[in-house]
Amino acid sequence: MSKKYYLTTAITYTSRKPHIGNTYEIVLSDAIARYKRMQGFDVYFLTGTDEHGQKIEENAKEAGIAPQAYVDQVAGEVKAIWDQMGATYDRFIRTTDKDHEEIVQKIFKKLYDQGDIYKSEYEGMYCVPCESFFTESQLVDGCCPDCGRPVKPAKEEAYFFRMSKYQDQLMKHIEENPDFIAPESRKREMVNNFLKPGLQDLCVSRTTFTWGIPVTFDPKHVIYVWIDALSNYITGLGYDPDGSSERFKQYWPADVHIIGKDILRFHTIYWPIMLMALGLPLPKKIFGHPWLLFGQDKMSKSKGNVIYADELANRFGVDAVRYYLLHEMPFAADGSISYETIIARFNSDLANTLGNLVNRTVAMSRKYFDGEILPPDAPEELDKELTGTALAAFPRYCAFMDEFRVADALDEIMALARRSNKYIDETMPWALAKDEENKARLGTVLYNLLESIRFIAVMIAPFMPATCDAILEQINCDIRDFDSLKTFGAVKASGTVGTPTPLFNRIDEAKMMAEIEKELAEKAKTSQTAAPEKAEGIAQIGIEDFAKASLRVALVKGCEKVPKSDKLLKLILDDGEGDRQVVSGIAKWYAPEDLTGRKVILVANLKPAKLRGVESNGMILAADAGDEVKVIFADDAIPQGSKVR
Q1: Distance of CA 29 to the CA centre of its chain
Q2: Ramachandran region of residue 479, left (φ > 0), alpha (ψ -120 to 50) or beta?
Q3: 503 pLDDT more than 90
Q4: Confidence check: pLDDT of 251 > 70
Q5: How many helices (H) and strands (E) does the chain have?
Q6: Does the pLDDT of residue 231 top 90, yes or no?
Q7: CA 113 to chain centre
Q8: β 91-94/42-50 pair status
């Protein structure tokens, strides 16, 4: 019987369509699941959506639809993207699934009956997006310490979980299981910042909204996100306090929870303590992966720096997107994504290194031997370096994968591809083909290349499954098990290769970036022109809200275009207190000389942001005027620095 392997992603919150940073987690988890299956494990892979809470209730109300209809729509988008990206999950759980809701109610009742949950009252500062309460001392500059957004005071009756009761037990478990939290830096953060200072009891119910799972014995309360969402890892297998399923008994405990670093506290403190209270074994490992940033900033729809996986896949192909995500994310540091870097990696690694290797080798086999694969009967000393590189790559690849160092594992594959290309340059098959006496040697060279390519295809299968299939089809060999990588020579001589077909066509960066910028501009225009239709539904604000914006008259001292952008201008403004740099997307309507020397209205207290790698410290006011944008200029007689109110 195969050894089991149970892995999960965090379930995706259905407040909006997931961006490429959210998608990284499912691709990472899928690569690990595929790798484990190739090792012979009986894998169960769980993913899904988190669908309750105040934020979703508010979003649904704003959209004018019922919460269930709202989450049905977003969950459908999530699942469609996961499927498009090739995720091979076994269950896509939704926290609105009937079986999940029923078991969560049982879990809450069990914890209440045994005294781990009690009723009290909560008063504190509440962050709606994070669905978290904070004390004044926990706030950062008066805002949520997790997301930086404003918080608001809240007071309500609630049920609480006795976290402190299990604190020492959890500390002991972490000390005795050094691999429980990974990477090591994340473990130190949890222990030093949260466990050692002491745990407060956790709010686990709410009464200020209704979109949630009701507490069976006190229905004005809904079960809060921590017990609801986190329990999916066991309800998805069939856990039941009254008698669990065979599947649960087979696969629990989880071998790994794969989560983002921003929700590490919930998974390494709240969740293990809940499991301890339920008398269940803890997961073997919780792996907190870093973020994928847009340039240097965390992706945010409000910042306008969101990239979506389905749009990238439609442009570059699914496997290319999977490769970029997995290769560009370091093990313990944040990764970065931009259209330019995707194109650069696509051209260098996929088109030039891998695609060129496969295409050249198959094409030479067809050209010199009509596709026939000759046996490696004429070896030379030079061959040993190639075969040695291939044989050494596989154990190193496995060591990296076993530690979830997927970027390093991919580097091993690409190193073998580069060595194979070098082998072509060293052996010069085109020169060997000129002399009939070198036929055996030429056949050996091409055989070695085909077998090296097979190694690459097998190892790349967890990351780029369609590319693996395409490579094996072209070399006409379907030996793809890991055991075949322990020796060099599985490609069968006397067979024939398939038809050489480019795996990845090189991208013209300038042309594609022009297309992308045009599409982004059209989307922005559509968004702007749609705004007036929603005017009647704009939420009113008080004078105190307007007063938060610091508006100043500023003189444009200098202006120039931002490199590699058709729509951005960089302005140097004198706001009466000194110079500041602002980036504005108005290059389509204004030349730099149109603005220099003019006075504009500056939003002076906007948080700094980066656009195309250029820092912007503020924003200038402009108006949508049909098909164009008009900057709002101030009278030249108004001194710079004057307040606008």
Answers
A1: 11
A2: beta
A3: yes
A4: yes
A5: 23, 27
A6: yes
A7: 39
A8: parallel
